[in-house]
């Protein structure tokens, strides 16, 4: 029988999975550390942690790994290959599913193909409950507030650098699916070459050249907000860094294991001549995914939200209140 404190973290031996497991513990939940590599799981485990090894291709092993859990947070990409096997196991177990995918095609496939199954299982399925996908969705929802629709939503991310994890490298090589934006109310392939523009970020970044680089936020926002166009951009410096194969992975600079990386994410919602903005600042895009996913799982398991089917953070929760809850994890949010 499932214990409402138990959350299976698949990919718990990876960089982001460790942040997720730590944030679950901070919220009084009990992570069950699951994944393909027993050695990595043991290295990530505190003394009292339960470890369950299950290969992504072994459905029976996944079923055993999720026994007794009330939810699973999936952190092991590339999600184009791993999301559906883990989701199917969650649906068989009738437990909530969240993932941290940045790949648009993975999230879109879940939204378009698994809503009925999730509703039949009586569970919430939340793709992209992470820095990419989830955070922009929360900011856009909070900025939209009482508006019943918008003409356009633009998201811009500024990073002072990007030291990629091995998982990011593997996903980049695997994810050759064309990126898309929302235009005219429909998903449309991103133009080639990708559009570039100037963006005036809040401090400490200021004016930056940005290029269109859409992630899962296009899918999450379009799922529930009435908007005709959504674009997403990133400044150029981190893209040069991540594009260099010699760039090392992230290095911890504090006791929580965070890197020194700083980020700003700004969302602008436009309706006619009016514009609303929401801005988030913080440290380490991988680390901030931990509290985003863990907070969502905590709220699902304690009954604060009983949504069933495939959904998003912005659709499930009071976005402004959810963002405020992340202040304890170092996320600073402003709205204007």
Query: Going across the major beta sheet, what is the strand order?
Result: 3-2-1-4-5-6-15
Most strands sheet: 7 strands, parallel
Indicate the proportion of strand residues.
25-35%
Oligomer, anyone?
Answer: single chain
How far is the N terminus from the C terminus? 47 Å
Mean pLDDT: 96
The total of helices stands at: 13
Rg computed from alpha carbons, rounded to a whole number of angstroms: 19 Å
Describe, in plain words, how this protein is organized in 3D.
The protein contains 13 helices and 16 strands. The chain has helices spanning 15-26, 38-44, 59-65, 79-93, 104-113, 115-121, 131-144, 166-174, 217-224, 236-242, 285-301, 313-316, 319-325; strands at 6-10, 30-35, 50-53, 71-74, 96-99, 124-126, 150-159, 180-183, 186-189, 196-200, 207-212, 227-235, 262-271, 274-283, 309-310, 332-335. 37% of the residues lie in helices and 27% in strands. The chain has a seven-stranded parallel β-sheet, with helices on both faces. A seven-stranded mixed β-sheet has the order 10-11-12-7-13-14-16. The protein is globular and about 55 Å long.
